[in-house]
Amino acid sequence: MLTWRHAQLIEELERLSDPTWGEAALLACLGKLRDGGPTEYELVEVRSARAADRGFDIVYLSPWGPEVGLTAREDQMQYFVGYYQQDDEVLTPEEFGYEIADLFVAEPLGGYADILEFDVDGLGWWGAGH
C-alpha cells in the first residue's frame, strides 16, 4: 500500500541530481515496493526511511505483522543474497534495493520476529548490526 510518506520519499530521491549509493539503493527499494514484486508488497506500508552509507534504514508495517525497522547495509548483509547476486558478485545499488524490497521487506517476518532489537521508542529492528 502506497502511503503518503512513501510517495514523498520517492519524489525527494528522484529529485537528487547525483545520488549516493545509499540513496540510489533506497530509491530502488521504495520504487519496487510501490510498483510490486513477486511477494506481498501490497501489504507493506512504508512509514519512514533514510539513506545511509552503502545502504539504508526503513521503517514499515510488515505483511501480517508489526511495524518494524530494517537496517540494510551492503557490506554487512552477507545473508541477504537473492536472485540478483551470484557468488561474490557485487550488486549495484539498484539490485541491492530490489533484493531488499522483494526478499525481505515484502515478505512476512517469520523467524526474524523473534530476534527484533527494540529501541527506546519500542520499535523492533532487524538486519545489519541487529
What can you tell me about this protein's structure?
30% of the residues lie in helices and 22% in strands. The protein is built from three helices and five strands, in the order H-H-E-E-E-H-E-E. It has a five-stranded mixed sheet. Strand 1 and strand 2 form a beta hairpin. Helix 2 (21-35) packs across helix 3 (93-105). The radius of gyration is 14 Å and the shape is globular.
DSSP strand tally: 5
Largest sheet: 5 strands, mixed
Give the averaged pLDDT, no decimals: 90
Specify the number of helices.
3
What general outline do the C-alpha atoms trace?
globular
H-E string: HHEEEHEE
Radius of gyration: 14 Å
Strand arrangement, largest sheet?
1-2-3-5-4
Helix/sheet category? alpha+beta
Contiguous uncertain segments of 5+ residues = none
Helix content: 25-40%
Kindly estimate the percentage of residues that lie in beta strands according to DSSP.
Answer: 15-25%
Give the CA-CA distance, first to last residue. 27 Å
Key descriptive features of the protein:
alpha+beta, 5-stranded mixed beta sheet, 22% strand, 130 residues
List the helices and strands and how they pair.
Elements: H1 4-14, H2 21-35, E1 45-52, E2 55-61, E3 67-73, H3 93-105, E4 117-118, E5 124-127
Parallel strand pairs: 3-5
Antiparallel strand pairs: 1-2, 2-3, 4-5
